[in-house]
Amino acid sequence: MGANLVSLAQDILSFCATAKKGEKMLYVTPPDYNKPYADAMMEAAENLGLEALHLIPWASSSGRKYLPHRDGRSKWMWSTFKTSDLIIDCTLDGRPGYPGAVPEYCDEFSNLFEESDTRVLMITVPAPSQRQLFPAEERFKRGLAAGEAITKAKTMRFKSAAGTDLIMKKEGRPGHVQMSMVDKEHRWDNFGYDCAECCPLEDGVNGTLVLEPQDLITSLPGDQYVTDNVKLTFKNGYVTKIEGGYTAARFRSFMERASLRGKDKESYGGCHFGWGISHEATPGTGSRQELAAYHHSAAGSVMVALGMSYGFASRSWKYFGLLGTRKAASHTHMTLFNLDVYLDDEMVVEKGKIIKPGF
């Protein structure tokens, strides 16, 4: 394997995962995984003096049930996770439609952190982009400052010249910050994802959200870029209308499937809203994995998610987790690049540019 890949893996483990000699590491992947990257991670772990295992959580060799799916959770799997100091949850080259190896939106996820000292660093960004997206200390400071301000605010508001005018009530909900690293105080993160966001009160989103051409709906199959305006109407926490032309029709069709043919109302509920904080974010080659990181992270872009918010939290950490109660069949993401963002009455993002000093 390439020395450069091992060096990259070693830097991620030592800096982003704060790995220390003698710690126990689980490298957890779906059944389809990137073998050169896995080999590099395992060699890097050995170089750092870690005790490391590669775990693929199959339920059986014949049924081929993949444990992190909701119907295949295993108490043994979760108890195994708790024995580790560090989990690298890597989905590079995983089969489309599979979740991460460590599912986040469930009670077991919250309990993992309350009942153990395990840290979890998720890696989905392809290796060629990882050096460019490597975290920086000034980004940590900006992210934590934004997380604190979001926590203190009672509302977030989004506006645009295209017609967006949306208010989100969030009093009592914490700011959630992602900044590509884990340590004793911040024990889950996703490498290459840098953002500050918040979960609204379940009935607390009202108004209109207008996506414009070149915005993104990253959950859509095929082309994820918006090609014509899409107007979403929110009422008491839920999307009640999806209006527009071609992209709106694609999105309506997608949401019909995601909501189990309309049976799951919660798939239309607001999940989390916030903005990217990374000036280094890039769409890369436009792969789904690269766009997934880019749409979370691009400085001043606004990410909106619908659906599942339950379970992704730890009450014992600052600026981590959604503390939402919404249980849904799906989790849908989109990003808008030309919005104004207000915390209470203070504008912090203007037309897709962060204007608040320190953010």
Description of the structure:
By secondary structure, this protein is an alpha+beta fold. About 2% of the residues have low confidence. An eight-stranded antiparallel sheet has the order 12-11-10-6-5-16-17-18, with helices on one face. A five-stranded parallel sheet has the order 2-1-3-4-8, with helices on one face. The chain is 24% helix and 26% strand. The termini are far apart. It is globular and about 55 Å long. A hairpin with a 2-residue loop joins β16 and β17.
- Spans of at least 5 consecutive residues with low confidence: 60-67
Span of the ends, CA to CA: 40 Å
Secondary structure tally, helices: 8
Shape label: globular
- Write the element-wise H/E pattern from the N-terminal end onward: HEHEHEHEHHEEEEEEEEHEHEEEEE
What's the average pLDDT? 91
Strand content: 25-35%
Give the strand line-up of the largest sheet.
12-11-10-6-5-16-17-18
Secondary-structure blueprint:
Layout: H1 3-16, E1 24-28, H2 35-47, E2 51-55, H3 75-82, E3 86-90, H4 107-114, E4 119-123, H5 127-130, H6 137-152, E5 155-159, E6 165-169, E7 175-179, E8 188-191, E9 194-198, E10 205-211, E11 230-235, E12 238-244, H7 246-258, E13 270-276, H8 288-297, E14 302-307, E15 331-336, E16 340-343, E17 346-350, E18 353-354
Parallel strand pairs: 1-2, 1-3, 3-4, 4-8
Antiparallel strand pairs: 5-6, 5-16, 6-10, 7-9, 9-13, 10-11, 11-12, 13-14, 14-15, 16-17, 17-18
